[in-house]
Design goal:
With 394 residues, the protein is α/β, with parallel strands linked by helices. The chain has three domains: 206 residues, Isopropylmalate Dehydrogenase, CATH 3.40.718; 125 residues, 3-Layer(aba) Sandwich (Isopropylmalate Dehydrogenase); 34 residues, no CATH class. Helices cover 37% and strands 18% of the residues. The strands form three sheets. The chain has a ten-stranded mixed sheet, sandwiched between helices. It has a two-stranded antiparallel ribbon with strand order 5-6. Strands 8-9 form a two-stranded antiparallel ribbon. Strand 13 and strand 14 form a beta hairpin. The protein is globular and about 65 Å long. It binds 1,4-dihydronicotinamide adenine dinucleotide and magnesium ion. The site of 1,4-dihydronicotinamide adenine dinucleotide has 17 residues, from loops. Magnesium ion binds next to helix 10.
């Protein structure tokens, strides 16, 4: 097969540490590619007033597949303060480059698998009726709508007059009609039928392909009648094409409670942007936390693969680095699956499982050890030692 070209965006902070580790594992497993590094993140905001340079967008448009580490984001005022002096006051406004990428390439399908790795000391444990501890195996895969909803970015403080007037036409707005504009912050939750259909179809297709017997659509249609209602309606329509897969409907609040009681009951879960974000962090916490949580952002022909953690700046300066590379490595594995390199992907999955199960090499987050300069002295493996162990297990 022709050699692939993969766009690599390490980004900021620990993104720069874990991205090369994932590439090391992919190469050791025999995946050959040309890796083209592309700029993204805080340094480019400071220097150029744009954390997502056009050159990076062009590279992704050309090559279609990218690995992304993490970026640093800061609130509006702080971002403006840190701009280089010659860039200040010129109207540059900070936006999150990963949210920007998702919208730019319509990467509307986010997949976040949360499987238990046997032997991970961070696995969810509960006490059964007989008082014995039990460790149910979790295998949830969250399908998060990735481009609209509450993260669509349509919000105002002190909304313009036309918006204010439009809101006044809604009977429920009368409770707020006397609030002065400057005391009013408004976010919108825009759902479109097509995006709801696509995320539900993605979830059912995945369930069908991987042998799941149910799909849970998790929203809040009793309160958010229009937006959540649209998602549920589309889920029901899609479900008609899959008579062997049950559709379960849950509300986000109850779902968060149930996942800490019976997480093993859930397989594929589909939700809007914000609820999907919340559920995926909830499940990630039951299977090892941010050091294990991988994700894919998929459009029709572009895929961007990233760990769900951020740039964890406080760990960047440590030498040797201590953060867990598994979330990034597993994001690389999702990339292989998407490229059809399933055999190589399976080999890496098996190697990671083996290292976690053996338990000889564990990063600080897998131990009851504080992350910091003393983690290694307290028995934690470094980032590179974890990668080396996975490569050895291949
Ligand atoms: P974070 O995910 O960077 O870190 C939170 C904590 O999780 C860390 O302090 C650390 O204890 C732990 N952690 C994260 N990754 C780990 C790993 N690989 N191994 C072991 N432990 C790990 O989130 P935080 O601190 O809220 O944000 C830091 C920066 O990252 C902010 O600027 C934020 O905006 C940005 N961020 C970026 C994301 C992205 O690039 N997609 C996602 C989330 C946050
Ligand atoms: Mg999140």
């Amino acid at each position: 097969m022709a050699k692939r070209t993969i766009v690599v965006m390490p980004g900021d902070g620990i993104g720069k540490l874990v991205t090369p580790e994932a590439i090391r594992v992919l190469e050791a497993a025999g995946f050959e590619a040309d890796w083209i590094e592309a700029d993204i993140g805080w340094d480019f905001w400071i220097k150029e007033g744009n954390p997502l340079p056009q050159k990076t967008i062009d590279l992704i448009a050309e090559h279609k597949v990218a690995l992304f580490g993490a970026i640093t984001s800061k609130p509006k005022d702080k971002a403006a303060e840190e701009l280089s002096p010659d860039m200040r006051g010129k109207g540059f406004v900070y936006f999150s480059p990963i949210v920007g990428l998702r919208q730019q390439f319509n990467l509307d399908i986010s997949i976040r698998p949360c499987p238990t790795f046997t032997g991970n000391p961070l696995n969810f444990i509960r006490r059964g009726a007989d008082g014995q501890a039990e460790e149910p195996k979790v295998d949830a895969v969250i399908f998060r709508q990735n481009t609209e909803g509450l993260y669509g970015g349509i919000e105002w403080t002190n909304p313009p007059a036309q918006v204010y007037d439009a809101l006044k036409t809604h009977p429920k707005f009368k409770n707020f009609a006397d609030v002065p504009g400057e005391d009013l912050a408004i976010s919108t939750r825009v759902f479109t039928r097509e995006a709801c259909r696509r995320i539900c179809a993605g979830a059912f297709e995945y369930a069908d392909k991987h042998g799941y017997t149910n799909v849970t659509v998790c929203e809040k249609p009793n309160v958010l009648r229009e937006t959540s209602g649209l998602m549920i309606a589309e889920a029901r329509k899609v479900a008609e094409n899959y008579p062997d897969i049950d559709l379960w409907e849950t509300n986000i609040d109850a779902q968060m409670m149930w996942l800490t009681k019976n997480p093993e009951d859930y397989g594929v879960i589909v939700a809007g942007n914000m609820f999907g974000d919340i559920i995926s962090d909830g499940f990630a916490g039951l299977v090892g936390g941010l050091g294990f949580a991988a994700s894919a952002n998929l459009g029709d022909d572009v895929g961007v693969f990233e760990p769900t953690h951020g740039s964890a700046p406080k760990y960047v300066e440590l030498d040797p680095p201590i953060v867990n590379p598994i979330a990034m490595i597993m994001s690389g594995v999702m990339m292989l699956d998407w490229l059809g390199e399933t055999e190589t992907a399976d080999r890496i999955r098996t190697a990671v499982s083996k290292v976690v199960a053996e338990g000889r090499v564990r990063t600080y987050d897998m131990l009851k050890v504080r992350g910091g300069p003393n983690s290694i002295a307290q028995g934690a493996a470094s980032t590179t030692e974890m990668t080396d162990a996975i490569i050895a297990a291949l």
